[in-house]
Amino acid sequence: MKRFMSQEVTMSAQLHDELIRLANEFGSDEAYARAGGGNASVKHGGVLYIKPSGTTLATLRDNDLVPLRIPVLLEALVSDEEVDGDPVMAAATAARVGDPGGRRPSVEILFHALIPDSLVLHLHPLVANALTCHEDGRALAERLLGNEAIWVDYTDPGVPLAKEIHRERQAFEARTGHPAPAITLMGNHGIIVSGNNRDEVAQRITWLSATIQAAIDETPAPVVPQRADDGASVAEAFRVAAGRDAIAWSNDDVVRSASSLSAAAVSRGPLIPDQIVYAGSFPVILEGIDDVEAAVASYEAEHGRQPITAVAPGQCVASVGDTDKAATIALGTFLDALVVGRDADRLGGSRVLNERERHFIETWEAESYRQQVSAGS
Ligand SMILES: [Zn+2]
C-alpha cells in the first residue's frame, strides 16, 4: 500500500512537470498565446489544478496552480439553480481545496473539468483561429480534421460556453459511438487540446497547426506593398489626439498586406474577445495625417469611448495605452487579428463577432475591471 501511494505521488508530480513544460513552451510563443491569454490544467485524484487569472502561461509555475474539486465544478454545469453573483466564481468558491491565497481561477475553469484527459491546454493560436474565425468553420473543420476535432459555435464565456462544449461532446459520442476527440475548436475564440502526457498534447497541437496551415498555403500568398515611410508621424499624431502617454506602432508586412479597409478587423468588427479586451472593438480609421484629430473626435462621438487602436489602411497600425506595455499588448492583439482575418479570408471568408456577442464582452469586461478596481488590485 505504501509503495502504491508513493508511485501515485511520483506519477502526479510528473504530470505537473509535464503541464508546466507545455504551458511554458506554447505560452512563450506569441503565435499561440499573448499576454494573460489561454490557460492550462492538470487533474488527478478528483482534483483539478488550474492556472489562476492574472498569470501567464509563459511564466506559470507548479505552485501557482489553484486546486478545485472536480465533482463540484461538474455539478455547476448541470445545475439550473440560481446563484448569487458570478456563477463561475460561485462554483470555484464551492470547489476550492484549502486557502486560495488571493488567487482567482479564470472564467474558463469549467470546460477544463469536463474533459477527462489529465492535461488540458487552452490557447488562442493564430493559425488555428483562421479556422475558428472562418465564416463556415464547422464545415471546414469537418473537411480538414474529420473526427479528430469537435466544433463549438461561438458562445458567451463562462457557464454557457462550458455547457455548449459539453453538449457538443455528447452529440459527437451519440453520433459516432466513440469518445469525444482531444481537440475542441471554439468559434471566434481558440482551441482546447488535451492528452495524458506532454508529448500527446504537443503533437496534437502541432498536427492541428500544420493541417490548417497547409490549407491556407494552398491559396495565393498576399502581396506585400512597399513601405510608405510616415508610420512614426501618423502614430505620434494619434497619440497626441488621443491624449495618451504611450504608443506602440507598426508598418510591418502584416500591416502593409492585411490592413486595407476590406480587412475584417479594420471595418467589420472584432474577431475574438481578446481583441475587444485589449485593442477595442473597432479601430479609428485614419485616411490622412491631417485628419487625425477630427477622426478621433468623430470616433468618440460615434462610439462613446476613446479609440485604443488606429489604422492608416495599408500603412500603419498604432495603439495607445497608459503604459508602453499596455500599448504593446493592444498593438500585438490587433496585429494578431489582422493575421487571423487575412488567413480566414484565404480559407474562404471570415466571421466577426456580432453586435450582441460584442456587447456582452464589452460590458462583461467593464464589470470585471470594476471588480479589480474595487478589490484594489
Ligand atoms: Zn480563451
Which hetero ligands occur in this complex?
A: zinc ion
**Largest sheet, order of strands side by side?**
3-2-1-4-7-6-5
Distance between the termini: 46 Å
CATH topology of the largest domain: L-fuculose-1-phosphate Aldolase
CATH class division of the largest domain: Alpha Beta
Question: What integer is the average pLDDT?
Answer: 91
Give the tally of β-strands: 11
Domains counted in the coordinates: how many?
A: 2
Beta-strand fraction estimate: 5-15%
Low-confidence blocks of residues: 373-377
Structural class: alpha+beta
Instruction: Supply the CATH superfamily name of the largest domain.
Output: Class II aldolase/adducin N-terminal domain
Helix percentage: 40-55%
The biggest sheet amounts to: 7 strands, mixed
Radius of gyration: 21 Å
CATH architecture of the largest domain: 3-Layer(aba) Sandwich
**What order do the helices and strands follow?**
HEEEHHHEHHEHEEHHEHHHEHEEHH
Rough shape? globular
The number of helices is 15
Protein name: Class II aldolase/adducin N-terminal domain-containing protein
